[in-house]
Amino acid sequence: MSPVRRCSRTACGRPAVATLTYVYADSTAVLGPLATYAEPHCYDLCAEHSERLTAPRGWEVVRLSDPSAPTRPSGDDLEALANAVREAARPHERGADGRAGGGPQAVDPMEVARRGHLRVLRSPDS
What is the reported pLDDT for 90? Predict the structure, then answer.
């Protein structure tokens, strides 16, 4: 007998990643992380079958998350990343003294101006 549990679906030999349990009294199908051991009234499902799972009409599917599973980026994560890229690409405002940033975060005091990746530096004699 193989130590790897297989998907319970007919003709599917992929390894199981989730366990499906039906709660008949509540008309609910509960899909959670792979159970520690196989039980006769639970069904082990592979990744593909667990993602495509549908319940009978009138039933609810409850999907319990696996904290050890890698998370997929959400729409909020992607939007935050896009905003960070836009902010980094935006030209910085110049302060009254002409330096980038204009505040206490101003870069090098020797820097007079900046254009792209090039910097104009003050002469050490002045």
Answer: 76
